[in-house]
Amino acid sequence: MKIDLTGVIDENDYIRYSQKFLNERKQLEENIASLQYKVDLLSSNEKKEVSNQEVKEKTKNFLKSEYINKEILFDIVDRIEVDQDKKIYIHFNFEQLNVYDSKEIDNVSVS
Fold it and tell me: What is the C-alpha separation between 96 and 92, in angstroms, rounded?
């Protein structure tokens, strides 16, 4: 069954609704990726449990280093992923560092 909608909806309205739909779909796909990332973090049993003091110490050493060698980087970072929209997801070796959303990273300070 084919329905002819010519004249029922204006072309500009169609374009506007279509763009709104595409934007909403993109946002939902980003939400799915973010939630999947969080699920992966929560379900990961590979992360070793360390004290907050050890995490702070290793993070300070990382931030103070003038040259980051492979050993220092591997001590802090488990893996780095880049999605098709060029968003970067960093998976740390310490669960305490994996709780931040990318929006919150700007507000994080190590004391």
Answer: 9
Q: How far apart are CA 101 and CA 65, in angstroms?
A: 25
The whole-model pTM stands at 0.39
Listed in sequence order, the residues at least 6 apart from 37 whose beta carbon sits closer than 8 Å to its beta carbon are 89
Instruction: Yes or no: say if 59 and 97 are a contact pair by the CB < 8 Å rule.
Output: yes
The DSSP output letter for 85 is T
Quick one: which of 30, 31, 64, 51 has its CA closest to 95? Answer: 51
Residues in the chain: 111
Task: Report DSSP state, residue 87.
Answer: -
Amino acid letter, residue 94: F
The strand ranges marked E within the chain are 77-82, 88-92
pLDDT at 92 over 70: yes
